[in-house]
Amino acid sequence: MNIQENGAALMAAVERDDGRAVERALQGGAPLEWRDERGRTALMAATQANNLALAKRLIDAGSDVNARDDTQLTPYLCAGANGFDAILRATLAAGADPRSVNRFGGTALLPASEKGYLRSVQVCLDSGVPVDHVNGLGWSALLEAVILGDGGRLYTDVVATLIAAGADSQLRDRAGHSALWHAEALGQAQVLRICVAADQDPRPGSLHRVRELMRRQSYAAALDLLSDSPGVDCDPLDLHYYRGYLLSELARHDEAIDEYRRALVLDRAALEFHVYIAQCLRRLRRADDALREYDSAIALQPAATYARYQKSNFLRELNRHQQAVAEMDVLLAQDPQRCDFWFHKANSLRSLGRHDEALAAIEPAIAADPSNALYQAHKAQSLERLPKRPAKPGARRVRASA
Prior knowledge:
Number of helices: 23
Shape: globular
Helix content: 55-70%
CATH topology of one domain: Serine Threonine Protein Phosphatase 5, Tetratricopeptide repeat
Low-confidence stretches: 397-402
C-alpha cells in the first residue's frame, strides 16, 4: 500500500477499535500524522472515542498530541474538553502544551470547568494551566463554572477547586460582571460563600476529609471513608452525591447511577441528579439514554438553562447539530441577550453547512458586543464559506472609488 492507503487503513482500524489492524498498519509504516477529511489524525479519532488503549499506543508510536484538526482542536484539548482524564494525562506526559487554546481562545481548563469535569479540572491545574486565562467570550474557568453551572453540588466542588488554585472571583467579564456578581444574581448561595471565603472551604460537616481525598484523586480511600462512617453528619443528598461521584470516578457507573436514583427518591425535584446520571450514561456510551435523562431534568424546570444547555453540549459532541440548534432556539427564546447562545447556534449551523443562517445567527452577538474579535472572526469565516453566486445576466460591475 502507498502512504495514502496506509494512513487511511490506520484511521479505519482506530475507528472500528481493531487493535490488531492498528498494529499491522503501524508495522507497515502508516504515517501517524495522516489526516482524514476533517483534518483528524488517528490519535484524534482515538481520543474522540475515549479509546485509552489505542490512544496510548499511538502516543507511544510518536503521534503528535498537539496536532490540530480543521476545528483547531488537538488530542490534548479534546481530552480535556470531554473529561477523558486518562487520555488527558497521557497527552500531558507526552508533551502537550498546557497553555494551548482552542478556536474559542480557551485552554482545556475552561470547557472542563464549564461541563463539570472535576477530575479534568484538577489535572489541568496540576499541569500548570493558568487558572485565570480568559477566552474569546471574555470568561475565565471560574466565570464559566458559575454562569454555565447550576450552583449544585458538583459545580460547588468545581468552584472550590478553582478558588483553591487561586482563581480571581473579582475578575470581570466583557459586561463588567465578576463571578461573585453572577453567583449572587443566579442565587448560587454555596458558590457565593466559597468565593467570598477564598482561602478556606466554608462548608461545614464531616465531608471535609472526603473532599480532601478527592482533590488528591484518592477516590477509593474517600469511598471507604464514607462506607465506614454510617453516621456521617451531613445532608443525605450530599452523601448520595459523594458516593455516586466516587463510584463513577472508579468506573463503577451502574452503582453510581443507583446512588443518584436514591437521591431522587428523597427529592424528586433535585434535577442535578438527573444530570449526574446522564454523565454516567455518557461514560457507558449509552447516548440516547443520557439524552432522555437530560430531558427528565428539563421537564422538572423547563425555564431553567442548565440542563438544556448541558444537553445541547452533548448533542454537539455527538455531531447532532440540528437537534443542538433546536435546543439553542429554546434557550434564546428565553434569553435573547445571551451572546454565547447565539455563538453556539452559529457554530452548529456552520457545521451543518448552512452558512447564510450561521451569519444571521452571529449578528445579534456582534450587535451586543461589536468589539468582540471572536464574533467578528466567526462572521468573516462564514462569509468565506458562502457559495459563490453567479452574477445576474447583464449585470455591470461597478468599480469602487478610491
